[in-house]
Amino acid sequence: MASTYSTLKLELMTTGEKSGTWGTITNDNEEAIEEAIADTGSVTFASAEFTLTLTNTNATQVARNLRLDLGGTSGGAQHIVVPTIEKLYIIDKTPADTITVKTAAGSGIAVPTGKTMYVYVDGTNVIDVITHLTSLDTTGIISVDDTTDTTSGITGSIHTDGGLGVAKNLFVATDAEITGVTTHGGNVISDTDSTDDLGTTGARWLNVFTDSIGDSGQVLDVDSSSVRLTDGVVFIKEQAEADADQDDYGQLWVDLATPNTLMFTDDIGTDKNLSIAVVSDTATQVQTSTIIVNMIEMTQAAYDAETPDANTLYIIVG
């Protein structure tokens, strides 16, 4: 009886045949086994689909190799058709386009440009070798590209039924969409200065609980009918003058005077002193206080012609 061949095309000799050649055939079979578990075969595209076949010989065959190194010119998205047997492949893809690894009748697995994938031919189709890991530890970068999560429906998303623990930094190039509650034990930090927002014009945060808001020169924009402080005090750092005027806005600030004074500046740049002036009547020993909302420097002649306002401090000069 003549020899037969296995799925990977190892020669299976029958008893009594091939006298004197068993050693050579056995060596060739062992090399074929090595090819299937450790070797690399090269596939060179020429702007067309590439089909791999296995024939009845234990001589070297590209389709038998564990790793397939894809090269050449793809000329657009292409297929590499592998034999419809049970087999593992490592696909190392270098062409400029997506290459789908498939059987003649299967749908296959698409390998993105420049990526390496581990796939399995199950005797019908090409499928992923690994679809679940109980844990993953890496010191490098995990990239998510061109995939759609069935829960979020967002291309390039990561979905977890448990938690996502990040020991150091989590970088998101565009948007991080969170539908539940986010808790953290560290800092929420922007990687740019004065260009990032918490919330948007159409979607504001309901409540913000914070020990402090810094730093100097930044703006806290509260779009609400009121701002309520339920406990504590408001500290305002003193400065030399008000900031630039803004239409429809007034400024509350603290002047550098000693002791410093509370100031209000309207939208046309008029400074008003809000300090409380204490006046003592030496005759009655009664102290009265008035809120000074304006301060004007003028000459004595101008003051004599003025109708004094109780909440204005007049400073006579000249």
The overall pLDDT average reads 81
Percent of residues in helices: under 10%
Sheet with most strands: strand arrangement: 3-5-7-10-11
So what's the overall shape? rod-shaped
- Taking all Cα atoms into account, the compactness measure Rg is 40 Å
Give the biggest beta sheet: 5 strands, mixed
Number of DSSP E strands:
19
> What structural category do the secondary elements indicate?
mainly beta
Q: Strand share of the residues?
A: 25-35%
Report the span from N to C terminus: 129 Å
Number of helices, counting only DSSP H or I runs of 4 residues or more: 2
Which runs of at least 5 residues are low in confidence (pLDDT < 50)? none
What is the element string, with H for helices and E for strands?
A: EEHEEEEEEEEEEEEEEEEHE
